[in-house]
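Per-record layout

source: Grallaria varia
name: Tubulin-specific chaperone E
length: 531
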Amino acid sequence: MTACVPPDALGRRVSCDTHYGTVRYVGSVSRTAGIWLGVEWDDPQRGKHDGSYEGTQYFKCRHPKGGSFIRPNKANFGVDFPTAVKDRYGLNDKQDVQCGTQNILVFGTKTVEFVGMDSVAEQQRQVQLSKLVDISVRECAVSHAGEPEEISRTCANMRHINLSKNLISSWETVIAIASQVQHLETLNVSENKMKFPSTSSSISSAFSNLKILALNQTEITWTEVLLCAQGWPALEELYLSSNNITVLERPDNVLQTLKLLDLSDNQLLDGNQLHLIAHLPRLEQLILRNTDISSIHFPDVGFGCKTKMLPLLKRLAINDNKISQWSSINELDKLPSLRSLQCNNNPLMDTEKNPETLKQLIIAKISQLEVLNNCEILPAERRGAELDYRKIFGNDWLKAGGHWNPEKNRPSEEFLAAHPRYPSLCLKYGAPEEGELKGRQPLTLKNQLLTLTIKCPEKPEQKPVEKKLPESMTIQKVKGLLYRLFKIPGSELKLSYESSKLEGKEVELDNDLKPLQFYSIESGDCVLVRW
């Protein structure tokens, strides 16, 4: 090997112009002179072949066009961490030169040289480095830790480090850096394709205080995560998006302090693996976006009960997946602490043509949900969704053996499996009566007309008016109609409604963008207008 090729070049990460790759071969190539590096590029479009040249296979690539040969002087093998920090924060050797030119001052005709100014500048630089708490050397070509103990001498107060998109080739390098940072709390090493340990012999105490770790796009597997996690005793947030995680295993005795786990953009081979990572007692947020999940099931309890799995989970993201059955939504009601759900872009979302209907069904099925797809669920919206759900499936409940007389109420197991919350809704609002269910229109019927009485309680001279309005009409459009009736601008109107079922209570119609059906208004109700 020539002098410009590091002795450990094979397997090292390199950059060339704006491209990143891994050295897969070092040596000669037939009918050429000198040493070549065979590189497998992260972006296959940068490559030319699969590692073969004129019939000889020098190295292998995952992509048939992912490799090429470059001369060693074209490859950047990176710099050590302290050098990158000094370069990024303007504390490098170039400043020494500038300081050196200022060591001589002229007073009249006399030239005075200040001896020792270089050492003073060095001391000042060390002080500046030692004050840094948050350090980002993203895309600074960091490849190794540098001289032993240099980091601990120069950057003693670091707590948060961003090492993303560098030239780190192995987890050992990360340990070498972290072991010199006594109070490390946050570490981002995303976008470094590196080798991870295969045995527990590489477990280090370097991460004993680490709370947040990002390993996105590092090609780590779940088995490697569990192995390394033995060295993360205080970790609270773990980001593992876009990796090689295809199979999950139960995390026994590791990750028990974890509050947030991001597994998004990992293509799980089995779409029903959620219960395997459900034994994380402190997990509050789980991100499973685009992971090929097709179903959700908590097998430890039956419908209508709360699972012991994920007892503190408050926020769950399962958008961009393959969930197609309502049974998976029913299962989410088993989570005792779930408050926020993201579930857009699943086949299930196509089962209802009306998005408002879909939203109401999800709200009714998950009792404690407060935020759905980043939208807050207001108390009036929950009440309306649950009342509608109770009515829509009331006839199915009766056919399945349901009855308003508790002694005769024996709905089938099949009905309870499909609608596990129905009994609790009957307890909350009362069982639907037969007259209440007659002629009930499907919830998806658009523009169903409501016969409403419009009153102005503070203007007795205004006589009540009866109007037929579509239930899909927004409050804003209702105000437009009222403007034509009363000649009062919509911005000055305050609307509410009362119903015989609300026992004299008024419900404010306070969101101009919501339709009448959002508030569960029914024919015969009275809209109250004030200004």
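summary: The chain has four domains: 12-74, 79-90+124-380, 388-429, 449-530. The chain is about 25% helix and 20% strand.
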